[in-house]
Request: fold
Amino acid sequence: MLDTKLKPAYVLSIFIAVLTLVASAGGLFIGNLYRDNSTFILIGWYGNDLVTLFVAFPLLIITLIMSIRGSQRAQLVWLGMLDYTLYNYAFYLFGAALNLFFLIYVALFTLSIFALIFGLANIDVNSISQKFQARTPVKWVSSYMMLWAILLGIAWIGQWLNFVVTGQLPQSGLDMDGFKLVATLDLSLVVSGLVLGAIWLWKRRPWGYVLAVMFNVKGFIYTLVLTAGSLLQANAGIEGTAALVPLWIFLSIACLISFMILLRHMKNQAT
Reply:
């Protein structure tokens, strides 16, 4: 049954899904769409588009349909997918060299912001939190989220401190602007949310369950993106990328297990 309060977020999500399909398929099949000078970056876009088209887009569509039909489990995953499109297309909008799809990236970034606002403002958080069983292993998931936040924060802040002291950026394939963009988005949109979600989940607060599923869904999809990108970069002979694949796979599996554990401990709602 359609929740009318969520209708604006659902409508925006339809536009987001269509534009996601166009952006990812176009990135894969339109020759010379990307105009970045770095091979590392170019291959990264292709890996991203591959996962977005064949994993993220179908998952967004499926969870959107299930959410409209009243599934609260699907609502949490759907919100996580909106968080993914916001985070993901921030990179395209602010990081990719100007190309044919500039306005599509603007639209995806903007629509994702408003869809998330309307979605989070209108879901029944208390009803959702009451569906989680008392034996839900919140401390295990919360601990993983906090560990992930700490390690990610240390990684970026440590590299920045190294730059301050030595004046040299890490050999990551990113130039100064690229490093700043990735670090900014991770520290602001990922680390902060993980910390808040982990604390609230540990205390079993209603919003903790919502944020925990959201961030682990986004983490699962985006580490798949990083896995695909690293494999393609390694195949192209870019040094150091293959060594990161086990880390991305571990994080992807850990995120998948985390949000699946939470959803598994949600009671079936009456319909």
Observations:
- The chain is about 75% helix and 0% strand.
- The chain has a mean pLDDT of 94.
